[in-house]
Amino acid sequence: MPYYHESQESGPDSKVVTMLQNILKTEITLLIESSSPSLPIEEKSFDQYIINVEEIIFAGSYSMIYLANHCDHYHYPLMARIFEPASQIDPHKCKFLRLLKHLGKRNPWLISTWGIYYDTNHRIALFQEFAIHGNLLEYVRSSNLYVPELQLIGWAQNIYNGMDFLGSIGLCHRSISPKHILLTGDPDGDKIIAKLGSFRDTIIYHDIQTQTTLHQRCRPLCRRFEANFHAPETYGTDSEEFNPISADVWSYGATLFYAGTRTYPYNYKRPSKELDSEIRTMIQSRINLSAEAKQWFYGLLRTDVTKRTPFDRIEKDKWFRIQVE
């Protein structure tokens, strides 16, 4: 079920629109009114987790990440992120933790959250799925080859499915980039699959009162000169706004384009005044992409939002629908 947008109301099937509106209202209300996302470590369920303190993945000022396991699913790789009290995260009111609990293990194309716990000092233990192949940025940088096109299609389908689920429950990721695409093993085979992770910037995009998309305020224009995979229209003055769904489509396209070409869609340090033409030239210059792939990417990366491929039309493209074994 794709993102809801106002134009659907004029469509032929009003029952489907009403159903989608009701689902969005239920999901958004559940998220906003949810109880504390964290459980005390005295809960018996906490004892089912094993934190491998000698296997450090990340060490920061306010948190550490370790490899972890669950007793009932020992062969399923997990990670435990331990937030120290100095992080000042409220285990009961933190919106980010509420979101992670709400997502839980509901969708196979999102990095799953298994449990959130806290102690008397407000030290927080967050248990999540561990992506054994790291993130897409690391994968591309460590490889001397372009991601093969069939693999690219598979990952495009994986990420699309994750975005589709978020959209169906009223959420927009807002930070799709190679760093936030996690690669792991397929539990039903030996191929590498892609999942959406890092939900810190995720927003509620739907206003359940007006049944409209909540537009977002633009970022400062000075941030245009960064390779952050945000759509061009997300930069502007304080009074300007953008559609977060359309912006996520551009980020999705830019992320996959980087995976297939190891190139940003345009020269972000000196962007052209004719940015759409620059992006088109960049896409056409990639000799490792098929003509069908180039056409698909250009549709996603149009600078004019009205000409950009809408989210619900992505899966209808012939290149996207190629069966991946």
UniProtKB/TrEMBL annotation:
<keyword id="KW-0808">Transferase</keyword>
<dbReference type="Pfam" id="PF07714">
    <property type="entry name" value="PK_Tyr_Ser-Thr"/>
</dbReference>
<dbReference type="GO" id="GO:0004674">
    <property type="term" value="F:protein serine/threonine kinase activity"/>
</dbReference>
<dbReference type="InterPro" id="IPR001245">
    <property type="entry name" value="Ser-Thr/Tyr_kinase_cat_dom"/>
</dbReference>
<dbReference type="GO" id="GO:0005524">
    <property type="term" value="F:ATP binding"/>
</dbReference>
<feature type="domain" description="Protein kinase">
    <location>
        <begin position="51"/>
        <end position="320"/>
    </location>
</feature>
<dbReference type="InterPro" id="IPR011009">
    <property type="entry name" value="Kinase-like_dom_sf"/>
</dbReference>
<keyword id="KW-0418">Kinase</keyword>
<dbReference type="InterPro" id="IPR000719">
    <property type="entry name" value="Prot_kinase_dom"/>
</dbReference>
<dbReference type="GO" id="GO:0006914">
    <property type="term" value="P:autophagy"/>
</dbReference>
<dbReference type="InterPro" id="IPR045269">
    <property type="entry name" value="Atg1-like"/>
</dbReference>
<dbReference type="GO" id="GO:0005737">
    <property type="term" value="C:cytoplasm"/>
</dbReference>
<dbReference type="GO" id="GO:0010506">
    <property type="term" value="P:regulation of autophagy"/>
</dbReference>
<protein>
    <submittedName>
        <fullName>Protein kinase-like protein 7</fullName>
    </submittedName>
</protein>
